[in-house]
Amino acid sequence: MSILVTGGAGFIGSHFARMLVNQSASGGQTVVLDKLTYAGNMENLREITDDLHKSGYFKFYKGDICNRELVEHVVKEDAVDTIVNFAADSHVDRSIMDAGAFIDTDMKGVYVLLEVARNQGAKKFIQISTDEVYGAIPEGSFKETDPINPRNPYAASKAGGDRLAYSYWVTYGVPVIITRACNNYGTNQYPEKLVPLFITNAIENKKLPLYGDGMQVRDWLHVKDHCEAIDFLIRHGKNGEVYNISANNEHTNIETTHLILDELKKPHSLIEHVLDREGHDRRYSLDSTKIRQLGWQPKIKYEEGIRSTVRWYLKNEDWWRKIKSGEFLEYYKRQYEHRMVSKSAK
Ligand code: NAD
Ligand code: DAU
Fold it and tell me: Residue 242 phi/psi, 5° resolution?
C-alpha cells in the first residue's frame, strides 16, 4: 500500500504516520502532505525523519490540500492508492472567532482530495470526521444512522466534508469510509485544546480557564487507540459506511481538570470558571457497537492515559514552550482575556 496521510504533521495525523512507518517492514509507503499551519509541526515527525535509514519508505510534502495540481502530483509521484484525510482546521474556539479557514480546508479541501481520488482510481479514501457532526445529546448515545445536526462552524464544515465524501461513494463509486471519533488526547497535542492547555498551564502555575460550570461531558479516546481503529477500518471497514469510534470514557470537564491537577500535585484553586463557549455543546456521546462488532476495541484506560500524557508534557517542555510563545500568546489573549474579565462563575 502507498498511503497518503494529509495533515500528518498535526496531532493525530503524526501518530498515525508514525504507526504506519513502524509497520512498514512489509513494504508499505507513507506519504505526508501538510500545509504546516500553526497546528502543524515537523517536530511531531522527528522520530521518523531522524531515523529514515532505519524506517520504511517515508516522504513529506509541504502544501495545501486545496491545491489540486499539488495533490495530483503527490498521488501520481508516489503511486498513492489510499488516502487518509486528517487535514483540517480543528479547533472549535478558533472556528467561532473566524470560520474562513474551516470552510476552505474542511470542505473545499475534501472536495479536491475526492476529485483526485476519483480521477486517479484510489482504492480507499478514509475521511476523518468527528462526533461533533451529530451535535449535542442530553442522554443516550448517537448511532451512525442518527441524523446529523452540527452546531458550531467547525462541526458544520466537518459535516460538509463528511457528507461530500459520502456523496462521492454514492455518485461515483469512490471507495470512501467515514470515521466519527470522540475527543482524542495523548502526546503531541497542540496546547489550545483542553487537556494539553490545562496540563501546560498547571505546570506554569497559570490559571486553568474552565468554561461555564465545567459540567459539559466529553468522551475521551487515547490517540493511539484512535489510530489503531483507523488502521483496522482500512483493512476491515466496508465502503460507503460510517463508523463511530469511541472509548466509553465519559467525563465532565471538571473531572478531567481535577485528574490533571491531582496528577501534577497542583492545587484545585488554579481552576478559574470563565465565560462559557458560545453555543457550547453540553454532551457528546457515541455508540461504537458497529466497529466493536467487527473486532476493534480501545486498550488504554483513561486514568493511565492521562497519567502518561501528563508525564510526556513534563518531559517535553521544549516542545510546548516553543509553541506557547509568539502567535499563541496573541491567540490566548484574544480567546481568554474577555472571558476572564467577565467571568461568570457558574
Ligand atoms: P490538528 O489541528 O492537530 O492537525 C491538523 C493538521 O492539518 C495540521 O498539521 C495542519 O498543518 C494540517 N492542515 C490544516 N489545513 C491544511 C490544509 N489546507 N492542507 C494541508 N494540511 C493542512 O488536528 P487533529 O486534532 O490532529 O485532528 C486531525 C483530524 O481528526 C481532523 O480532521 C479533526 O477534525 C479530526 N478529529 C479530531 C479529534 C480530536 O479530538 N482532536 C476528534 C475527532 C476527529
Ligand atoms: O469531539 C471531537 C472534537 O473534540 C474534535 O472534532 C475537535 O477537533 C477537537 O478539538 C475536540 O473538540 P472540543 O471542542 O470538544 O475540544 P476542546 O479541547 O477545545 O474542549 C474540550 C472541552 O473543554 C469542551 O467542552 C470545551 C472545554 N474547554 C476547552 C478549552 C480549550 C474549557 O472548559 N476551557 C478551555 O480553555
Answer: -105, 140
